[in-house]
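HUMAN: Ready with one sample?

ASSISTANT:
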Amino acid sequence: MSVQRMKVGFIGCGGFASGNHIPNTKSNPNLEVHAFCDLNEKHLEELKAQYEPAYVTSDMEKIFRDPEIRMVICSTKPDFRLPVMKLAVKHKKHLFVEKPLCYKEDEVGEMVSLMKNAPVKFMVGFNRPFSPMMRALKPIYDKHKKGNTTIIYRIIGEARLWPKHHYDAVVVNKESTIIHETTHIFNLLNWLTGLEPERVYTAGEGNMDNIITLNYPENVTAVIISGDNSTAGYPKERIEINTNYGTIAGDHFTELAVAGFDNFYARKTFDYKIGGETFNTDGRVAEEKMRNWRKSVTEEEIKLGYYYDRQIKVDKGHYGEIEFFRRCILENTGVEVDVIAGAVANLTAWRAIESWEKGVPVELDFSYLHKLGGQRAATFNTRINSKLQTPSTKQYSK
């Protein structure tokens, strides 16, 4: 007997939702694209023709009033999340919001209080812990972490390739990528270590090209090198963990290497796509493909701000996070990428900006968030591993 698919409504259907959440929902056999809400009527008509939803609307409350919709995915700008959250609670709809949680610090307390006893599931879109590479990395870290631990995370892109509206927002108007993007890495490191940072220090340009140091308990120190002053012809993201006389290194979600730990050496590669074709190669081959793609990008494509059809698409966990949320709803289990996780990442970002402005380290204290949010049901590490079937190190080739 076939299981009825869970119907999904979308609020905010811009470039990110159209390029990630909507097609990922469409490709999930357990989900159904049911309705779209956006203020751009032309784009709504395009989505209507492509996906054939039950309806499109510019009235977001219509999405929440719809008795057939069980999950709502919100990809509005981060300065318009609280009204959406209030409607979700009012109409008892499970809500997924894209990161960051918000753009205004004075909204955080109200958000946490609102969701504390809400009769809905709520999740923030930090996708990287749901990527196959990170799911493989996490149990290796848990097994071997011991003593002083240093983590280096590189996340550097190429601002010249951004669409004009995004370039103007960040480069001209100085909207901080620490809020827009580095919150991803704050959350990832918290998930990886099972800890929350105690101190942050930022050096660099301020809104985009920075080196951020986080001090965690248990002798864990993390350095995030973030920016957009590199080339898209080189892998954007890399994580390197050094602990217990061993190294765990992951390259751009395509390759994971383990060395040391009593002479244990292993390597694993992960699927990536180019133009719909799937590849599984070592990191150097993936890097070469990326370099060749960058050489082929035309000035016309850069001016248009769209070149994604030919770009290498690695699995950063966008599909996995929505499937995880679906199962939390279906099984009525707690969501650990919750409002508190979102708030901790946001507050870390604001304190990182404060550190840059003052030129000194800034202490971090999240105790009031936990008091507002109450006791969390389980550790995220346990929940995510049980739901997504994390691979063991036995699956690696030595």
In short: The two ends are 43 Å apart (CA to CA).
